Each structure stands twice: as C-alpha cells, then as structure tokens.
Amino acid sequence: MSHPAESVDGPLNWFPALMGWVLPGLGQVLLGHRQRGFRAMGGVLGLFLSGVLVGGVDCVDRREDALWFYAQAGAGPIAFAADWANSALLKTGKVGRLIPSPPSNPRLPPPQVTSFKTVTMSNEVGTLFCFTAGLMNVVVILDALRRPSATQGAWTA
Fold first, then answer.
1. Does this model's pTM top 0.90?
2. For residues 19-34, average pLDDT
3. Contact 134, 75 (CB under 8 A)
4. Total domains present in the chain
5. Facing residues of 140 across strands?
6. Digit-coded pLDDT (tens) for 39-94
7. Cα 63 from chain centroid?
8. What is the pLDDT of residue 6?
9. In a domain, 9, yes or no
C-alpha cells in the first residue's frame, strides 16, 4: 500500500538523479533521505569495489567487454576510472610487463596482454559484481528521480 503523500504525478527530481549517478546514493541524501542514501552508497560502491578486488581492474573493459560495460557505467564515474586504469596502465604495459597471448587468428601477430591479467573464474565474478553494481545504481537513480523530498513531509521508509 502506498502512502498518500507519494504521488505518481509529482515532479521529477532531475538534479538529485544526476547527482546519484555521479556518486551513488547522493540523490537520496540531497532529497533528505540520508539513511537510505548512505545505505545505497555503501551497497553500490561496496559491490563495485569488491568486483574490482576479486576480478582485478581488467574486469571493467569498455573495448573488450562493451556490453558488460554499458551496465557497469550505471555505477557512475568510478566505472570510467576503472576502465581508464585498465586501458592506460595495464594494456600499455606501464604496470606489469606485456606477454604474448595465444592468437585467436593465426594470421595475425599474437596479442600482448599484461602479466596482471586475470584469466580464471575470478575475472568473470568481478565483471559480474561490477555489472550488478551498475544495474543496482540505475535502480537507485530511478528511486531518486521519483522520490518526494523528505522536507515535503513525505514518508521516508
């Protein structure tokens, strides 16, 4: 049952929703739902950082895993920072050394991968964690878009 103060026809909160993408949960905090916002922030950022910890920075890859990255980008600028770290540090050999990988096409030279590349199931689990964090933040953003401000006397559960 919805609370009478929750109106479907109310205005959309575009600024808090945008701020919720910049920093997950910030939209709810700006609307006055501090506890809800900080819990969402902890959940999204904790899940994303756990994914990077488990799978390594290369689990966020805009070029090789574009479909996964579209959802990971929902987590905000942290996904773009992880992708930058992957492409600017790992794939260039600035961190770790580049080693030849078995070619997928025998006519092409073997691709170079970093020695920090995770190739086990942990990379897939990290990718999935970051993917889930991005989708979770999209839900949090949509909540901030429609949630009435706490100062309007709305229900804050």
1. no
2. 96
3. yes
4. 1
5. none
6. 999 999 999 999 999 988 889 989 888 999 999 999 999 999 999 998 888 777 77
7. 16
8. 53
9. no
CA distance 126 to 124: 5
CA distance 115 to 64: 17
Q: Which domain holds residue 102?
A: 14-149
Give residues with Cβ within 8 angstroms of 78, minimum separation 6: 45, 48
155 occurs within a structural domain: no
Amino acid at 23: L
Question: How far apart are the C-alpha atoms of 92 and 90, rounded to whole Å?
Answer: 6
Classify residue 90: in a domain, yes or no: yes
> Is residue 134 packed enough to be buried (19+ CB in 10 Å), middle (13-18) or exposed (0-12)?
buried
Instruction: Give the model confidence (pLDDT) of 113-130 as tens digits.
Output: 666 666 678 889 999 999
Element (H, E) at 99: strand 98-100
